[in-house]
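Entry — protein

Goal — fold tokens:
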Amino acid sequence: MPFHRVHRREAIALLGGAAAWPFVARAQQPEGVRRIGVLMNSVANEDQQAGAAAFVQTLEQLGWTVGRNLRPDIRWGGGDPDKIRREAENLVGLAPDVIVTTGNAGVPPLLRATHTIPIVFNNVADPIGAGFIDTMARPGGNATGFIQFEYTIGGKWLELLKEVAPAVSRVAVLRDPAIAAGVGQFAAIQSAVPSIGMELSAISLRDAREIERGVTRFASRPNGGLIVTSGALPVVHSNLIIALAARHQLPTIYYRRYYVTNGGLSSYGYDFIDQFRLAAGYVDRILKGEKPADLPVQAPTKYELVINLKTARALGLAIPPTLLSRADEVIE
């Protein structure tokens, strides 16, 4: 079964046994079993489960077998900073051979908790600006991994929104102001505004009430559209954001495919599942003796444009044929 086709049922089957095993000290593990901590910052939805399952599948393809020579301990942060911190500390306390974390929020508490256990991150924005690494080519410490995209992608989101919905003249950016990525992505979008000529504002993603209030207020004036930036909170509140965009007839651009397959209008961004496959490759190399300080942090090489025609029709939008021809996936 191809990794990008892993669905919720298969993900639970793959992960359930590993997640349910009792937590025991590393010294009690059978000889030759390597322990991997996995910190998932967000909620255990179908998308996140598929990513974690693809990670385990890739390791198995590389010769590791859960229960024989590999034991993954998977924890979920639910988008809650306090829970993410606690789970990070718990994983470090298990003394695994490697810890994998997805998204920005899990990296700081892991780096505070350990300077020796190798950390592999994926789906991270700007690890240099956040202070996780020294340079992309030579990370320098005990962490390395894979970034989502360069912030300049924000300008492409703005261009895409204008192409999908030419009448849009006002844009609200949904972002988490508490993380460096939320600030950086908004700044990149803001820098592209003069060349495209739109009115820009921001909506914070602190909680559901604030999101609903902000989107409703923004939608009270005509010709509006939304851009949803990356982070744990956009995932936690994904269903609410998609529903609000539909309710208020707001054309919306998302940063990855998951939102569009669940009813959003369009996305342009990295291949989310591929990040987990890449992280598994680095874990394999570290388990075989390489050091994270010597493994370069890498940017995605594959980006995908996804358009939901059903949603476009509901919004009264006629997607230009030239844009449809460029799309990697069109959802009918």
About this structure: Residues 1-29 have pLDDT under 50 and may be disordered. Residues 180-196 form the longest helix (17 residues). The radius of gyration is 20 Å. The first strand starts at residue 34 and ends at 40.
